[in-house]
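new request in #modeling-help
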Amino acid sequence: MQLTDSREIAATPEIVWAAILDPEVLKQCVPGCQEMTGSPEEGFEAKVVQKVGPVKATFKGTVTLSDMQPPESLTLTGEGKGGAAGFAKGGADVRLEPKGEGTLLSYDVEAKVGGKLAQLGSRIIDGFAKKMADQFFDNFKAAVEGPGEDAADDAPEAAASDGDEAAPKKGWFKRAVT
Amino acid sequence: MPKDHGIGASTKRREDVRFLTGAGNYTDDINVHGQAYVHFLRSDVAHGRITNIDTAAAAAMPGVVRIFTGADFEGVGGLPCGWQVTDKHGEVMKEPPHPVLAQGKVRHVGEPIAAVVADTLQQARDAADAIDLDIEELPAVVNMKAALEEGATKVHDDLSDNLCYDWGFVEENKGAVEEAIANAAHVTTLELVNNRLVANPMEPRVAVGDFNRATGDSTLYTTSQNPHVIRLLMGAFVLGIPEHKLRVVAPDVGGGFGTKIFHYAEEAFCTFAAKACNRAVKWTSTRSEAFMSDAHGRDHVTKIELALDADNNFTAVRTETYANMGAYLSTFAPSVPTWLHGTLMAGNYKTPNIYVNVKAVFTNTVPVDAYRGAGRPEATYQLERVIDKAARELGVDPVELRRQNFITEFPYATPVAVEYDTGDYHATMDKMLELIDRDGFAARRAESEKKGKLRGLGINCFIEACGIAPSNLVGQLGARAGLYESATVRVNATGGLVVMTGSHSHGQGHETAFPQVISEMIGIPEDQVEIVHGDTANTPMGMGTYGSRSIAVGGSAMVRAAEKIIAKTKKIAAHLLEAAEADIELKDGQFSVAGTDKSVAWGDVCLAAYVPHNYPLEDIEPGLEETAFYDPSNFTYPAGAYACEVEVDPETGVTTIEKFVSADDFGNVVNPMIVEGQVHGGIAQGIGQALLENCVYDENGQLLSASYMDYAMPRADDLPEMAAYTVDHSCQTPCTHNPLGVKGCGEAGAIGSPPTVINAILDALNSGGHKVDHIDMPASPSRVWAAINNAS
C-alpha cells in the first residue's frame, strides 16, 4: 500500500532535519515504540509493540536512513519482525521545503506486511498503515513545534490517538535545540 | 414398500452414533504415553533465501527436546509425486525436489523451515519464536501467465523455467480440431477462471509419530484417506523404512475432500522425529496452518472455444488451460488438470473433434492438488458455461441445444480416450425439468420481478469418470501406483463376519453401506457384519478413498471376497447335507438343497468350518477367510442434470438460491439416504465455490484469505432451505463392468453445481436486459453488481 501526505511544521528545515536524525525523537514519535537506539550513520534498532486487528505483537527491527540530502530529503527504510505474527516492512521518502517561517514536510510511504498479519489483517492493513503514518507525523510535528497557538487543540487528539502510550511532550525537541 | 435392509435400504448410519455423541476416535484423540509436541516454524515470505538460521538460543529454552532444520534432512528423501505426466513433445514433466523441511530456500508462505519438538506445545511455540532466522526475500511469482514470461523469477533455480509441462490431448487431433473450428458456422469463445479453493475439512490434519526402540517399528497415526498409500510413499521414498516395520493408522477422519489423500511433510517429520528423539511426536494443525499447508484445489485459467455447424451440432471443442501447481508437486497434482480433466471434455455430447492444452505452472503458492471432483468440475464448468453462452448467442433453447448433441448410443468411445459404458442423458434431463417445474418458471419470474428481483433458471449436464480405475490404463497414463482395491472377509465361528477393506471412510458411511451388500448376498442381518478400515496392520494393501471409488472398486473387491466365502460355504453345506454342491442354494442365511426341504443354517456351516469334526478336510481347508483384489476394467461414468433458480437483487448484486434440483444417474444405489447426503454436501460445496469461496494471494505471494474472516465458507443461510432442494437418483443405468452395477456418488454435487449456479445468475441478469456473458466465481454481490452496472 502507498500513502502520500504532508505536514506544515513551524520550525526551520534545519531543525526539522536534526529532529529526524535523533533516535530520541523517533522513539517518541513512532507509535508503540518502546526502544530506539543507534545513530543516523549506523541505523537504528527499534522495538515496537502494536496491535493490528486481532494480531498483537512485539516487532523488533531496524530503521536505516539513506539518500540523505541535508536539509532537503532522505529515505527511511524499516523492517520489523513480529515473530509468529509475521513481519512489516516499509519505507518513507521525506522531503523538506521552506515554507514561510516553517517547513513543509512531504512524505510518500510504502508499507507491506507478511505472514499472519497478511493472513488475518489484510482487510484492515491499509487503514492501519495510514493511522500509523498519521500518528507518527502528528507526533513528530508536535515534538518539533512546541506549544503553539494550536497546541490546546492538538493535545486531546494526540492523547486519544496514542492509546495507552503517554502523549509526547509538546515541542521538547525545539526547546532542546534552540 | 422401501426395503428395510440390504441393497436399496436407507439404513441409518451406524457410525453416526459415535460421531454425534462425541465418541469418535480421531487422530487428535490419540495420545501416546510420553509424547512430545512439535511446532513448525513456517515461512512468512513467498520466496526467499535462508541466509541464517540459528537455533542455539531456542534449543536452550525450557522443555525443548530438539530442534530440526533442513540440515537434519539432508540425505533423507523428498516428498514423492505419484503421477508423471508426459508433455506434448514427449518430454516428462519437470519434477523439482520437495523437501520435508526447507533446504536453503523457501518457495511459499507456510513452507516449514524448522520444527521444534518440546514437552508441551506452548514450549515448542515459544522456542520457535526464539529461533534466529534471516531470509533474504526474493521476488515472488504468483500470476501463472506472468510466471511463464521470459525472464520471470524462477520458483526453482535448477529448472529452465516455471512450466511444469505443456500437455496436448490428443495431440494427433489438433489439426482436425483447427480445421473444424475454421469451417464452423459459429464459434463461441469464453475465458474464465476456476477459482482457487481451500478444502477446509472440519477436522484439521494431525500426525502422531511413534517409534518402538525394542522392535524398531515405526507407527504413524494420521488424518489420511489412504493409509497404505502413505505407508508406501513415506516408507519407500522419504524415510527408507520397509513396510513391515512401518504401520500407518488413519482412524476416524473428519472429512477429506481430497486434501487428505496426499503425503505431507508433517507426516514424514513426525515419523522421523519419533525415532530421532526416541519419543512419540504429535502435531495438530491449527486452522491457520491448514490454510497455508493443506493442498489447495482448482485454480485454472481457461479459454474454451465451441464450434457448431449451421444446424447447431457441436463440431469441435478446443481449450487452453493454465493450471497452477503451486511451489511443489503435491502427490497427485499433475494428474488433475490432465487425465482427470482432459478426458472429460466430451461431456455428455457427441462432439467429434476435441483438443485440450494444459500448461501446468509453478508459482510461489501452496501446492494445488485434487479437491472434490478433481479436474472434472473444471471440465464441466467450462463446457457447460460455453454451451449456455452459445445458446444465448444463437438465440436457441439451452435445453434443446444440449439435447440435440447428447450421446444416445452406448458404449460410446469419446475422442478423448475414454469409453462410456452406459447412460441415458435424456432421462436425467427429463427428470430435472420435471423437478424444477420449468413450465412454471415464467410465472415465478414474474412474481420475482414484481418484487424488483431478477429471476434466473440455470441448467447443467455433466459426466464424471469415477471409480478410478484400471491399473494398466492409469499406468500408461503416468500413474506410479496401481488403483485396484482390496478386501478380506473373515467369517467368525458363529457366523458373524468382519470385512477388512482397503477403502477408507472419512464421512462416506462405509460402515453402514458395506454391510448392506453383505447382508444382501448372504441373507444375514447387517449388524452381523463389521467393517474394519484405516489401519495397515489389519487391512490388506488398499489404495484408499477418492474419485468416488469406494463402493465401485472397494465394494466390488468385497463382493469378490464374499463370493469366495459363499463358494466355500456351499461346499461345506453340500457335505453337511450330503448333497451335490451344484444343488445348494443360499437364501436368507439358509443353505438348502434345491427341490428338497433339507437345509442348514449359515451359522452352522460357519461353525463347521472352525470346528471341523464333520468336514471334508481332504477337499477344503478349515476356516473361513478370503481376500480379493479387484481391478476394474474401466472407469464408471455417473452423469446428471442439475437445475437452479436464483433471485438476484439488481440494487445490491446479492444472489439467493431459491431452488436447486439434481437428477443423477449413479447406476444402482446401495443406500439412498447416504447417497442423498453425499449429493447434498457436494452441492453445498459447489454453491460455496460459485458464490462465496476464493483463496486470494497478493502480488507478493502473501496469502490474504487465511481465516474464516476472509475465506467465506457456505453457511446454512447461504443455501436453499431443505424443501427447495431436491436430490433425485431414480434414473439408473447400471454400470456394466462391476458386480454391483454402481457408479459412485461422492463428487457429483460438487461437479454439477457451480456451472448451474452461474448459468442461473447470467440468465437472471440477461432477463433484466443486462447483456452479461460472463461472471467469474465466486459471484459475490460486488461482482454481480459490477456486471450489471458495467453492462447497462
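bot summary: DSSP finds five helices and seven strands in chain A.
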